[in-house]
Amino acid sequence: MLSDLLSDLHIFIGVRSPAAAAGVRAFLLEAGLTVVKSADEADVLLLDDSALSDLGTLRDFVGGVVALGSPVWVGALADLALSGWAALPPDAGPLEVVAGVLAAAAGLAALPNEQAELLQLDTEHPDAELSDTAFADTSFSDPDLLGNVHLTPREHEVLELLAAGLSNKRAAKQLGVSEHTIKFHAQALYSKLGVQSRAAAVTRSVQLGLLSV
Fold first, then answer.
1. Do 96 and 118 contact (CB within 8 A), yes or no?
2. What is the 3-state secondary structure (H, E, C) of the chain?
3. With contact defined as beta carbons under 8 Å apart, do 166 and 9 qualify?
4. Cβ neighbours around 206 below 10 Å, total
5. pLDDT tens digit sequence for 85-111
6. Which of 15, 40, 107, 136 is most buried, judging by how many CB atoms fall within 10 Å of its CB?
């Protein structure tokens, strides 16, 4: 029976906000899914942007992952080559989250249409930058970096486009500049933020209040 199949799915909720975690837990239980206290017991992990700084721990996870939050999760989860995953917006409703959990558990990938189109474009054109931004590398070269980061208006525009999952090629087209210019600004961003990858830049920018997710 479907109810038996659902109750056999064990979900671990790794959401930072207690209120948000309680809300997610409530509708997972209402859907008949089982919520567990340890990731080691889980078939599916349900995470938010707080997990972006520790993506390496997901590499050995054999189940599915559902992420709520930044669009950068799309590239990060695709890069990790998990058995199944879903990248959902932070305001995803109960039905979307449950559907994402079921998709991830079934070994499928689920993501918003716009992000799917971007991912498809970058898969079809491997020379684009989405795949070579080392999403898994979220280490910060200066963990003590705090505030006092000033971005130029152009750097901020580039940061927002990269956070939205655009490749360098598409970001260049959006801003009417060359890919070389985007790469130049991206490297300047990495240097100012003390990071070495796009995912780390987005994470650090959120931490510093330079981006909102």
1. no
2. CHHHHHHCCEEEEECCCHHHHHHHHHHHHHCCCEEECCHHHCCEEEEEHHHHHHHHHHCCCCCEEEEECCCHHHHHHHHHCCCEEEEECCCCCHHHHHHHHHHHHCCCEECCHHHHHHHHHHHHCCCCCHHHCCCCCCCECCCCCCCCCCCCHHHHHHHHHHHCCCCHHHHHHHHCCCHHHHHHHHHHHHHHHCECCHHHHHHHHHHCCCCCC
3. no
4. 20
5. 999 988 888 888 888 888 888 888 887
6. 15
* Tokens 């109810």 sit on residue: 3
* Amino acid type, 130: L
Question: How many residues in the chain?
Answer: 213
At 67-91, the pLDDT tens digits run: 998 877 877 787 777 888 999 988 8
Token digits for 157?
A: 């525009």
Beta bridge partners of 35: 11
Distances (CA, A) of 208 to 28, 134, 148, 152: 32, 21, 9, 15
